[in-house]
Amino acid sequence: MAILPIHERLAELWTIRSRRPLTDEEAADFEHCLAVNAAHCRRLAELYNFSLLASMTSDTEWQHAICRKIEQLDGPPRF
Q1: 65 to each of 35, 50, 55, 60, 62, how far by Cα in Å?
Q2: Which of 40, 48, 69, 74 is the most exposed place for a label (fewest CB within 10 A)?
Q3: Do 70 and 46 form a contact (C-beta atoms < 8 A)?
């Protein structure tokens, strides 16, 4: 999976935070990035669980549809 822009920003803010306190704007941005990252991870986990269920029920068509959705999440998150 590719590194998303949200992850790059989180890394940038983490690095800044290790050198000095974040400004109020940076802190708000950091919290926003964490929220978007958590939502992205939850969505991927949900899709992986659906994919497992589709596999266990031998629903190949559904599993392929789920895999396409997982592949789409390789780009910027869509929230």
Answers
A1: 26, 10, 12, 9, 5
A2: 74
A3: no
Q: pLDDT of 5-20, one tens digit each?
A: 899 999 999 999 999 9
DSSP letters, the chain, are -PPPHHHHHHHHHHHHHHHSPPPHHHHHHHHHHHHHHHHHHHHHHHHHHHHHHHHHTT-HHHHHHHHHHHHHTTSS---
Cα dist from 54 to 49, 60, 62, whole Å: 9, 7, 6
Q: Is residue 76 a contact partner of residue 9, using CB atoms and an 8 Å limit?
A: no
Which pTM value belongs to this model?
A: 0.79
